[in-house]
Amino acid sequence: MTSVSPTPGIHHVTCVAGDPQRNMDFWAETLGLRLVKRSINQDDSGTYHFFFADAEGTPGTSMTFFPWENLSQGKVGSGQVSRTAFRVPEGSLHYWEDRFDDFGVDYDERVERFGETVLPLRDPDSLPIELVEVEIAEDDPTVPWTEFVPAEHAIRGFHSVTLWLANPDSTMDLLGAMGLEEVGTEESPGDTPGDERTRFAAAGPVGSYVDVLPTVQAGRQGHGTVHHVAFQTPSDEDQSAMRSAVQSQGLRPTQQIDRHWFRSVYFREHNGVLFELATNGPGYDSDEPLDDLGGRLVLPGEFEARREQIEAQLADVTVPLAPDAEPTEADD
């Protein structure tokens, strides 16, 4: 039997947004993440796919969006990623609260969870987000992007995702098969509708945690919801072994699909959450220089031959840049 290397943690999280310019403004300017890739949904070429990450697009840092303007507002519920949390350096939440006040961001009172301080907020599509204060190690693999937010406060990749599940036991078994270890449970006051939160930890330093909360509350996909969560399987060999482990759990993963910047396998876990296994390469700098990430609309593979047609379907968007920089449009 092929041995399975435990996943190092979350690779990326992909969500559904509404207006693409509003989405761009919030994630690039308000939260200060770098637009490392602007492309299209490879299964729906009339829709953008935005990738926001750290300065180098390090695995474990990219929050991505499909801005499907024609969809209705979604509702977070069972069978979804209900919260996506990001790491920020210790002592930086005061900075973020002041920034959110300045930018009119909807946020809540801080809460304590597993000994850490958490600041809940929502993006313009009401997507639930959290900032979690953590100690950032000197050898941390993430590289802060400082165009809008100083390094001492900048977001440093994922902290965790929270899953809302009707029947958590089978999903918890799956997480164990993927190499995550159960590290604790605690009551979760203020979480609707969760009563007890169970935390699993992956092997890597970024995007290490998956929290599980039981709920039967119905949800629906739309603006402000997570489409899927991807976990790192760094190499093709790691991915193949993990795919076999997933099959052994009675699930039906796809064959490998080339997503140009990584290679992917998809499956719905037992409670309906869409999971992805993603390789760490070739990376976002495989088709653009590191200094120019996000600088143009990238159309991978066969889509480049249809550039004129595709650009005609996409709304013009302007990437927020520092005041002394020249703005660029996505159809340049």
UniProtKB/TrEMBL annotation:
Residues annotated as domain VOC: 9-134, 157-280
A Pfam family that the UniProt record links to this protein: Glyoxalase
InterPro entries for the chain: Extradiol_RC_dioxygenase, Glyas_Bleomycin-R_OHBP_Dase, Glyas_Fos-R_dOase_dom, VOC_core
Protein name: VOC family protein
